[in-house]
Amino acid sequence: MSELVPALLASGEPLELVALGGRPDAVPAGMSQAAEPWHPPTNFGWSAVGLPRAAARAHVDLIHAPAYTAPLRAAVPTVLTIHDVSYERHPEWYPYRRDWLRRTFYRRSASAAAHVLTDSEFSRGEIAAAYGIPTSRITVAPLGVSSDFGPSGSPPLSALPPGVSAPFLLHVGDLHERRNLGVVVRALVEARRRAGTAPVPTLVLAGVDRGVGDLLDTIARAGGAADVVVRLGAVADAPLRALYGAASALVYPSRYEGFGLPVLEAMASGTPVLASRAASIPEVVGESGLLLDPDDTVQWTDAIVRVMNDASLRARLRESGLARAAQFTWARTARITLGVYRRVLEAGA
Questions:
Q1: What percentage of the chain has pLDDT greater than the value 90?
Q2: For 61-65, 67-71, 170-174, which range has the lowest pLDDT when averaged over its residues?
Q3: Is residue 150 part of a domain?
Q4: What is the rounded CA–CA span in Å between residue 63 and residue 70?
């Protein structure tokens, strides 16, 4: 909401935005805040008890719940944002003891909402299939890209996190099974075999390890390239921008994304994109990156070799990526969101 709220306020619409509960220091500028009433100290307790009470005290006309959970009962209509339903469509990726409870809560929230917003046509179809919601109740509002990301010259080495040196490929996002990063590690091992003594990029991973990091290291060691993987963990904003600026390319072999914001951030930074032809990713990339079969190591190897050795290809991907990213604005997201607010309020009038 940190990007959407300013865009909504800048729309020129006569709109008052109220943050219901939460930390005062986390409320975006331009919003007022309603104090958080007592509620059971759980996410469910907040959604079932606290949020409806806060909405009633603030006399709001509509609730926008921005992330998966919404009040199951409220005196005013709710618009719910669902970014993706990977947990519902692929529960094997989330083997947590209580994940069934989360999925049940998410399902009930979706069913109770007057309207659902999502990030892509892919997610629209997935939400309809997962929850039996008609697509007429789901609107696509693609995300925008922050102005923090833009083309720049190569950053100084001192701006990069320790352990990172050029050339490198970058992946941004949690290291999760669905991100399918093993295909890139295997491709880099093969690229190193082809290159002989020529320099081959490392794979820099900027994101929290959700249980696959050690496996990626094992794949690299088994291929005789133990140093090919560089794990950074979570990265702050400034070094992340430096990583985008210095990377030879962003690699994004994910099998499932509701949107894939790092792809957009990379294009906005002028960084070439190699990504999987899967889920929502083609909607974001269009023809401005190299889209590859997520299961074809040979394709990934060939693409990595090409992008590392073909300066004209890198230049073409840079220019087309910048043009593509310019189409994804928060102003557009705000216009679509406001349209949904109007339709929901008019339907309830």
A1: 76
A2: 67-71
A3: no
A4: 9
Closest by Cα among 43, 330, 308, 349 to 198: 308
Q: Are residues 256 and 195 in the same domain?
A: yes
28: confidence class by pLDDT, cuts 50, 70, 90: confident
Q: Which amino acid appears at position 94 of this protein?
A: Y
Q: Let me know: does 130 contact 89? Beta carbons within 8 Å.
A: yes
308 & 167 share domain? yes
Please report which helix (H) or strand (E) contains residue 32, including its range: strand 32-34
Distance CA 349, CA 342 (A): 10
- Say what angle helices 311-325 and 261-268 make with each other, to 10 degrees: 110
Based on the fold, state whether residues 21 and 168 are members of the same structural domain: no
| pLDDT one-digit tens code per residue, 104-123 | 889 999 999 999 999 999 99
Q: Is 97 exposed, middle or buried (CB count within 10 Å of its CB: 0-12, 13-18, 19+)?
A: exposed
Task: Give the model confidence (pLDDT) of 241-255 as tens digits.
Answer: 999 999 999 999 999
Cβ(308)–Cβ(168) below 8 Å: no
Q: Is pLDDT of 161 > 60?
A: yes
Query: In DSSP terms, which residues pair with 80 in a beta bridge?
Result: 65, 116
Helix boundaries (H) for 223-310: 237-246, 261-268, 281-285, 297-309
Answer for the pair 245, 154: CB distance below 8 angstroms, yes or no: yes
CB 253 within 8 A of CB 175: no
DSSP code of residue 50: I
The domain tally of the chain equals: 2
14 burial (CB, 10 Å; 0-12 / 13-18 / 19+) is exposed
* Angle at 220 (CA atoms; ends 218, 263), nearest 5 degrees: 110
CA atoms within 13 A on the CB side of 277: 10
Q: Nearest 10 degrees: CA dihedral of 126, 129, 135, 139?
A: -30
Same domain, 173 and 309: yes
pTM for this model (two decimals): 0.94
- Does residue 184 carry a pLDDT above 70? yes
Q: Are residues 137 and 225 in the same domain?
A: no
